[in-house]
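Lab channel / #folding
Pinned by the channel admin:
"Please post every new chain as: sequence first, then the structure tokens as a reply. Keep commentary short and put observations after the output so the thread stays searchable."

First post following the new format, from NK:
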Amino acid sequence: MQHNRRSLCYKISFTLLEIPLNNFFYVIEGYFKRYLLELSMKLRSNCPLNIFLDLVGDKWSLLIIRDIFMGANTYSQFLRSPEKIASNLLVDRLKKLQSYGILNVIADKQDSKIKHYYLTEKGIDLYPILAEMMNWTQKYIKVDFHSLSEEMLSEIKQLEAPKHSENYRKKYRVKLEKLLTENQ
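Reply from TO:
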């Protein structure tokens, strides 16, 4: 039996040596991410609303997504958000949003220490929900909103939410294409 284990280890070792090293790390990273996602995705119920809230329903995740739509895309830019997210929460939410396939990241071409976070299609498709949440807030909560929020709310009223969301997602895709092109 000992001999069989040893030969199995050798077979695994030789198999791993045949995979180019950078591909090997991508394979391992992919398995690890899927494992973490499975661990974190223990669903409390099969209700679509519950699943949505488990994925992005916390305050910080929604604000990070909002900030990305508003033009922020680096760790330091997220920290400067007016809501003042703690750095440990920011790291946690960025990792979760990436593991759920809502965000992705690319290293800066000039400085590889800087990471640019961007929304995937799954993340971009959250914009109509955010717009409707803003619309609801304006309707029922009477406060002076931030000037950027006022601009968006005005556009939502003028174009109506579906048209505004379509336009805003198109604008974001243009910005995203520029970001990806600049950092390839």
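NK: Residues 161-182 form the longest helix (22 residues).
TO: also worth noting, The chain has two domains: 1-40, 58-182.
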